[in-house]
């Protein structure tokens, strides 16, 4: 009986659910949908040694991406620009090409179905129900683990991927390697970190926007992720106005009176979305408290060696366990090609 049930479970799982596992893991979160979901298996750019995928290398155009204020290289005379017939061309430091090296990371989630549950739910339709629920719950757990590491303080050498808090921690004061580069020694490899600002003001956001935009192609951040309490506090700090009541207590965010076909008066208040200089501010319940991260998606990648896949259901009765087990696992790496293009507030007072 167990073999028949296992065969039915294996078939239903592979045909109906396994092709969707990767999407299920990446769906449902603004972070995974924007940064992780766009990646494809085999998307690992340069790989060393021997370009076989054993290590990820993100090229860094050191002199171009950085600036003198961040310790970047400078041009020498006649290395670039207009010239005359008597000019002798020189090579500048801007042509130096370096790279950050990243190790692959492994992620998994293991789920089981007890053989008693299978015996109670024989028949293809009931078996599919069990597999669907198990898969849905398992992919949610795996997504949570991926998101926790994305925001973590992990740096080189951690089991999980490098996290935003680890990569954007300002002046470490001790050897801190991100992609094999010491942020303590190389100031140009540090992102923007503000630990003193407690209120998310226009001036604070503007300072980070200008600092992270000035390097490279002058392209600004593309998205901001923050905890719910940070976004709520930001909304509470915005200008307010009402037509009646105490001055300064109303909502400039769009409080108004209108009418519909029933000629009812309707009051509208609050904001539906937040942008700063056209950059979306997205609330993410997985983001650390008191934190807002300004991210440029052109300089961060989720590289994939092998998409999430399944080991298939295994009957563990021969191993003294009365259940079936399956593991979903995959290999990837979160990489940065210019930390200067990202910023982080770490001490915002939440609502």
Can you describe what's shown?
There is one protein chain. The protein is built from nine helices and 17 strands. The chain has one domain: phage-related protein like fold. It is α+β, with helices and mostly antiparallel strands. Helix 1 (2-16) packs across helix 6. Mean pLDDT is 80; it is low at 63-72.
Quick rundown:
With 351 residues, the protein is of the alpha+beta class.
List segments where confidence is low: pLDDT < 50 over at least 5 consecutive residues.
63-72
Determine the fraction of residues in helical runs and give it as a percent range. 25-40%
Instruction: Please tell me the total number of domains.
Output: 1
Main sheet record: 6 strands, mixed
Rg computed from alpha carbons, rounded to a whole number of angstroms: 26 Å
What strand line-up does the widest sheet have?
Answer: 7-17-13-8-12-11
Shape descriptor: globular
The first-to-last residue Cα distance is 57 Å
Q: Round the mean pLDDT to the nearest integer and report it.
A: 80
- If you consult CATH, what is the topology? phage-related protein like fold
Structural class: alpha+beta
CATH class: Alpha Beta
Number of helices: 9
The CATH architecture would be: Alpha-Beta Complex
How much of the polypeptide forms β-strand, as a percent range?
Answer: 15-25%
**What's the order of the H and E elements?**
HHHEEHEEHHHEEEHEHEEEEEEEEE
Total DSSP E strands: 17
Give the topology.
Elements (H helix, E strand, L loop, with lengths): L1 H15 L4 H6 L3 H7 L9 E2 L8 E5 L1 H4 L32 E5 L2 E10 H6 L3 H27 L13 H4 L9 E2 L2 E2 L9 E3 L7 H12 L9 E4 L1 H10 L19 E2 L7 E2 L7 E2 L2 E5 L8 E4 L4 E11 L3 E2 L7 E14 L6 E3 L6
Parallel strand pairs: 7-17, 8-12
Antiparallel strand pairs: 1-2, 2-3, 4-16, 5-6, 8-13, 9-10, 11-12, 13-17, 14-16, 15-16
Helix pairs in contact: 1-6
């Amino acid at each position: 009986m167990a073999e028949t049930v296992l065969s039915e479970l294996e078939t239903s799982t592979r045909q109906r659910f396994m092709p969707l596992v990767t999407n299920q893991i990446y769906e449902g979160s603004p972070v995974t949908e924007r940064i992780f979901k766009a990646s494809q298996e085999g998307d690992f750019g340069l790989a060393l040694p021997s370009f076989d995928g054993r290590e990820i290398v993100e090229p860094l155009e050191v002199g171009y991406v950085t600036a003198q204020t961040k310790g970047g290289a400078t041009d020498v005379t006649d290395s670039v620009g207009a010239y005359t017939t008597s000019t002798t061309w020189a090579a500048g430091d801007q042509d130096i090409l370096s790279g950050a090296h990243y190790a692959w990371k492994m992620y998994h989630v293991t789920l089981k179905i007890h053989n008693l549950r299978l015996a109670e739910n024989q028949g293809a339709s009931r078996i599919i129900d069990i597999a669907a629920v198990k898969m849905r719950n398992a992919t949610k757990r795996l997504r949570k683990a991926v998101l926790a590491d994305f925001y973590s303080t992990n740096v080189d050498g951690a089991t999980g991927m490098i996290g935003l808090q680890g990569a954007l921690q300002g002046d470490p004061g001790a050897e801190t390697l991100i992609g094999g580069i010491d942020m303590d020694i190389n100031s140009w490899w540090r992102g923007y970190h503000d630990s003193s600002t407690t209120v998310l003001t226009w001036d604070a956001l503007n300072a980070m926007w200008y600092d992270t935009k000035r390097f490279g192609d002058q392209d600004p951040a593309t998205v901001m992720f923050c905890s719910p309490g940070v976004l709520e506090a930001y909304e509470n700090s915005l200008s307010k106005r009402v037509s009646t009541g105490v001055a300064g207590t109303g909502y400039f965010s769009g409080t108004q009176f209108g009418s519909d076909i029933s000629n009812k008066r309707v009051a509208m208040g609050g904001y539906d979305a937040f942008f700063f200089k056209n950059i979306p501010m997205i609330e993410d319940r997985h983001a650390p408290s008191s934190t807002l991260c300004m991210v440029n998606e052109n300089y961060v990648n989720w590289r994939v060696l092998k998409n999430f896949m399944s080991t298939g259901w295994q009957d563990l009765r021969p191993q003294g366990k009365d259940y079936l087990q399956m593991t979903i696992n995959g290999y990837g790496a979160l990489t940065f090609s210019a930390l200067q293009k990202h910023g982080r507030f770490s001490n915002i007072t939440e609502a």
